[in-house]
């Protein structure tokens, strides 16, 4: 490894750290330079050329000047300060030219007097921090077999966030893979394909969740975010409630938080926020009446009646979504949740005028969801629902799919968690039919396994991912276990990746002028992932 020595810091545990970008390498076998070759060729082309005696035909962009191998404590401290400052700028959505502001320079002069900025600091640190976080995400995704992708239209109307969802310790985890300019379907499609290819995800993707308008054609199972469709339906209903907007504005003026809502960015407030706002106002009704007695925004008795109506209409939606969220809001819950909400809202006869348009809109979306194989098969693989919400047509399709998929009868191995059972569970399980011991051909065994699965009943308190992770579940339903991750691999509601305030939008406009399109996308990548992943140190 001698030719790389001046670019490396050797750590006590046998690991090495790149002095250019601070990337830490795992302990390598003696004389093994494969990882170093790849890293320097991919990340540090100029140094790679120097090491291998290659003359550059063109001038390459300036890279960070490598520190000496001695790497004093001052060098380490300066590197940490550089990193923290770039995390501050990207994580807090500050303009990059903030670093040139006299007030900031004065602060640094007082707080860190010996620290000096390199003229290439913004450019070099942006690249370094991006490489660090991209590497972390790439490492995490390398351990995952099934993922779903979210395409989220941002509130600025210019950008799309590309998000990956996967299960980590039976909980949903998401990371922003990239940010794409919304510049036409063909351009967007190509950029998204590039992002997915760069992270090596194309063979792992089970589904795509669309949030906002569909602006790209992707060759994967697609469904629209449930939360967006519920929001659309509820807004349709509240448009019929003529006093709603007036009461909403009054309450917002009282709590003095209008500046912080997404409505300022041209996006209607979401139904769960509306419910919480009105419910809290009703709890503080006497206080609000006292404080606004002489106010022009005084809330009348009719206004309070409207607030009670809004909470009553939204309450069954809140209750149903909370119940599902407790045991895992997977894509398998979409069809059952829509059917339950339609029934609940139809039973609210006293609010029929507002509930009717909500129900009609949910029915329109339900028709789309019911035609989606991913959602239908996922629902039947969910221990909470099974065939309770499925039509015979789809049950037959599912049975046929299992038979066709298992025609080759290939050996299938899946790592499952070993769960210690209590004596009662062992006794009950011993009384159940073991489909693997029944005589008959493979297709007959699959048919009996599916029949047994449907007859065994449901459990609304179970998390479907945790349930299938148990060894006992695999033993009881080996064929179904083989496919469960393919159809339970997405959340019902995609994550909102922007959460942009009016200040964020202004800063985005400023930074777009200071950076080229590639670096601006890296800035937005860091802005989003720092909020999700945190600011832990490189050594952690």
UniProtKB/TrEMBL annotation:
Gene Ontology cellular-component annotations: nucleus
Gene Ontology MF term list: protein dimerization activity
A Gene Ontology biological process term: regulation of transcription by RNA polymerase II
InterPro entries: HATC_C_dom, RNaseH-like_sf, Vacuolar_transposase_reg
Pfam families in alphabetical order: Dimer_Tnp_hAT
Domain HAT C-terminal dimerisation, first and last residues per copy: 458-530
PANTHER family the record matches: BED-TYPE DOMAIN-CONTAINING PROTEIN-RELATED, DNA REPLICATION-RELATED ELEMENT FACTOR, ISOFORM A
The protein's name: HAT C-terminal dimerisation domain-containing protein
Gene that encodes it: Cnig_chr_I.g3887
